[in-house]
Amino acid sequence: MSEPLLEVTDLKKHYPIRSGLFRRAAGAVYAVDGVSFTVAPGETLGLVGESGCGKSTVARTVLRLVEPTSGTIKLGGNDMTRLDRAAMRPFRQRMQIIFQDPFSSLDPRMTAGDIVREPVTFHGIAKGRAADDVVASLFEQVGLRPGQMRLYPHQFSGGQRQRISIARALALDPQIIIGDEPVSALDVSIQAQVINLLMDLQKQKGLSYLFIAHDLAVVEHISHRVAVMYLGRIVEMADKTSLYRTPKHPYTEALLSAVPVPNPQIKRRRQILDGDVPSPMNPPPGCPFHTRCPHAEARCRVEVPLLREVAPGHVAACHRND
Fold first, then answer.
1. Is the four-CA dihedral 168, 169, 172, 173 of positive or negative sign?
2. Is there a domain that residue 320 lies in?
3. Closest CA to 223 of 251, 242, 248, 249
4. ∠245-253-239 over CA atoms, to 5°?
5. What is the pLDDT of residues 205-229, one digit of tens each?
């Protein structure tokens, strides 16, 4: 196994809740509460879970778009958790992000060419005609025509706008790209095109991806390994074959039971979870999933299960695996 490109250890992001005349801290939102994972060179790690479980906060914290409360973030073995803006600049080139909404993530006042050219000139990679040539090449790599560089974002379809976002992410020749639900706002047919484009680019350039999504079918198609999040924590992580065939956590089992099966001859029993996701402002004691788990025992209500290896390369946080 090669050394990890990205290594995240015990990452936490807590947002303080302030109240009263003097705005004193009266609590916190535990958006991310002790997340650890690695991404190897050329690997795609899928990060899945319900809305509000902390997936996007993980993405923004890893990129230092928001500051972590605690934990460490290493890229290529270098700890970048507490670096200032100047020291972070070389790492910005090595890590890029594709946002969820291609309609709001592109500046409507800039042409598509200028949007992609901006990081190229800002980081001093190329200027003038050389920068134009770099942008034209990036457009061709993502399936757009160089002649479309003069058009504005509103003149493109949703799928084409996301291709512009991908070209912008590729502009600095990064080592890892974080996709924050990059296809969830697109039509299903366009989703497949964008996913296949990302996989082709990964083969050509040796890219690593942290791919965040709530659609398990999409994640299975693109990922090598999958991590499942619930209420700010990773509750299970394994290679995609093991996780989809033999899930070891009841939350993962419930998620997989909701994935549509294309074969009508196969009958899958749907697992309906009781209740709602607890508030991240007041997470339950013990196992965070015990309030909705059909297998919860007295132990689950008081003791937090550790994320430990239950099969080779397969980790889960559930007392049933003891």
1. negative
2. yes
3. 242
4. 40
5. 999 999 999 888 899 999 999 999 9
What DSSP state is assigned to residue 249?
S
Rounded to 5°, angle at Cα 204 from 157 and 107: 30
Domain count, the chain: 1
Token reading at 232 = 């700010």
Residue 76 lies in a domain: no
pTM of the model: 0.92
> Mind giving me the DSSP string for 23-54?
TEEEEEEEEEEEEEEEE-TT-EEEEE--TTSS
First and final CA of the chain: distance in angstroms? 27
pLDDT for 264 equals: 64
Phi-psi region of 52 (alpha: psi -120 to 50; beta: other; left: phi over 0): left
> What are the DSSP calls for 64-111, one per residue?
TSS--SEEEEEETTEE-TT--HHHHHHHHHHEEEE-S-TTTSS-TTS-
Three-class SS of residue 274?
coil
Residue at 303 is within a domain: yes
For residue 71, give both structure tokens.
Answer: 């934990």
Instruction: Tell whether the model's pLDDT for residue 204 goes beyond 90.
Output: yes
Structure token digits, residue 203 = 């083969």
In this predicted structure, what is the pLDDT of residue 265?
64
Strand runs (DSSP E) across the chain, as ranges?
Answer: 6-19, 24-39, 44-48, 70-75, 78-79, 95-98, 176-180, 208-213, 225-230, 233-239, 308-311, 314-316
- Provide mean pLDDT across the span 297-316: 93
C-alpha to C-alpha distances, 218 to 131, 158, 191, 192, 260, nearest whole angstrom: 34, 18, 9, 8, 12
Q: Which residue has the tokens 């160089």?
A: 146
Collapsed DSSP state (helix, strand, coil) of residue 311: strand
Residues forming a β-bridge with 15: 29
Would residue 251 count as lying in a domain?
A: yes
249: containing domain:
235-322
